[in-house]
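Sample log: SnoaL-like domain-containing protein.
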Amino acid sequence: MAGRHDRPETGKTPMPGPFDPTPEAEIRRLLHDWARAVRAGDLEGIVAHCAPDVVWFDALLQVRYEGLEGYRRHWRRSLAERPGGLTLRVGETEIAAAGDVAFARCRHRFGARSADGVETAARWLSMTLCLRRREGRWLAVEEHFALPSETEENALRAASAA
């Protein structure tokens, strides 16, 4: 199984070049596109990386969603509840792929913006993403978000402030 582990100093995972054909680079582009869509409030861009049969576990709400429509409803509600928009920074990312199956483990810093653009309620989340290659593209079949322990979150805060 091939893999790649990034720990950039800025806390951001670098975007791969547009012509890098490796599964890891394709998945890294998918993650960057998803993050860009979240920050832009682009609902269709947010759900574009998911398979129709995606299963998703939300750490904050402690809810399990099944299917693309459930995922879409969740994000529609999340975007509507945060009229100032969302913030999202992709952090440390590890990707492993073999054949038509891949896994990604990521740290993300999620937050919301107030109506005047100030970031509020930002916190680190861990994400595990299971993907399958279908019809020539990688699609998420399972997403699991988890809250880090208090000790881990304090370490992440300290590292991102440095």
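Observation: The chain has a mean pLDDT of 84.
Observation: Residues 23-40 form the longest helix (18 residues).
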